Amino acid sequence: MSYELRCRECGKSWGNQPRNICDDCFSPLEVHYDYEALCGPVTRERISARAPNMWRYAELLPLPHNFRVSVPAGFTPLLPAPALAKSLGAKTLFVKNDAVCLPTLSFKDRVVAVALANARSFGFDTVACSSTGNLANAVAAQAARAGLKAWIFIPADLEPAKVLGTQVFGANLVRIAGSYDQVNRLCSQIADGRPWGFVNVNLRPYYSEGSKTVGFEIAEQLGWRLPDNVVVPMAGGSLIIKIKKAFDELIKLRLVEPKPVKIFGAQASGCSPISTAVKSGTSEIEPQKPATLARSLAIGNPSDGVYAIKTIRASGGWAEDVSDAEIVMSIQLLAETEGVFTETAGGVTVGCARKLYQEGRIHPDETTVLCITGNGLKTTDVLGGHYQSEEPIKARMADFEGFLEKTLATSKSLVEA
Ligand SMILES: *Cc1c(COP(=O)(O)O)cnc(C)c1O
Ligand SMILES: [Zn+2]
Fold this sequence. Notes:
Elements: E1 3-7, E2 13-15, E3 29-33, H1 35-38, H2 44-48, E4 78-80, H3 82-88, E5 93-97, H4 108-121, E6 126-130, H5 134-146, E7 149-155, H6 160-167, E8 172-176, H7 180-193, E9 197-198, H8 204-209, H9 212-221, E10 229-233, H10 238-252, E11 262-268, H11 273-280, H12 305-315, E12 319-322, H13 324-338, H14 344-358, E13 368-372, H15 397-410
Parallel strand pairs: 5-13, 6-7, 6-9, 7-8, 10-11, 10-13, 11-12
Antiparallel strand pairs: 1-2, 1-3, 4-5
Helix pairs in contact: 3-13, 4-5, 5-6, 9-10, 10-12, 11-12, 13-14
Bound molecules: pyridoxal-5'-phosphate and zinc ion.
């Protein structure tokens, strides 16, 4: 193997096994690669010649020898976003669109794909997770395809589409009357006693590596260049630190020119333990009780929170948070300007980006990428009441002309015509 688990703090090596915490110092484990061996064999040309999915970066993922691709996740579009840029007071703006990541329309498909590859090789016949919704969908779908049994633990109040989008795959769903943080604590206890592969508990170091592919793709799609800034939504804080790790690895392997990238974090004000810490200058997380529409980001005690704070600060970036009203407006703004329908987490990213431009923390001329991580069809409930459904009209020209006149007189849009 050219990779192994090492403790993030004391550096102790733990080989490869389903484990996420160092027994010596109780810090999280991280996958470490033999970069010396990879430098040379891994070239831009070799990567670019491969199929357009996340497995084109296989050497930089923890994949067992017997791994065979069955879920071609990732390689989502990086869209120029000129109309959104104009509305935010920006110039060079891109949207990394994981609203269309396959198979379940969020970036969680990437992390689950790597976790299940390892679950298999560790001999688990059952996989599980605690989830704020998208992870549930991804585990349920990919477990079905891999022929694994799945147990999915969620807070009971998730969006209906995310609940249904788990049940349809035949997964065992456990709805908990409590917050995500309570669900997650229960899962840690279950993982201690049962031979199940919890993708975000005992398989977490492998799982989280899948997030790096967002960073690899951004760089490749910019023509093997790093952006000046990225804006990333944060729940547990894993995606944001792994995008940074991806950029660092590309530099290490000389696949891109070294360059500082400012990392910006985005949260909902109703659950903002990481952005609150960044703004107040502390390096510790004060857990919160979530109260926000953005349920995919509603983690009050983020497990990678301190590392997210460090990453943001060391990069010269910042963190912001937005209200529920701003989240909904931002979902509408992205849809109306760029034709991308994102879920609440994407509204958080766009809303926070708007603030960061206003505050002058992101310079309009710099190249900035917004990470849109999930699909709007999963959270249509938050738009309830925002669009009237008109009485139908008769199929007659006169009725249409009347309707047109009335509509034009009252039309409202976030984008000026
Ligand atoms: C899980 C999730 C995130 C954040 O992921 P973390 O790695 O836990 O910070 C962002 N967006 C969406 C849509 C998610 O489902
Ligand atoms: Zn340790």
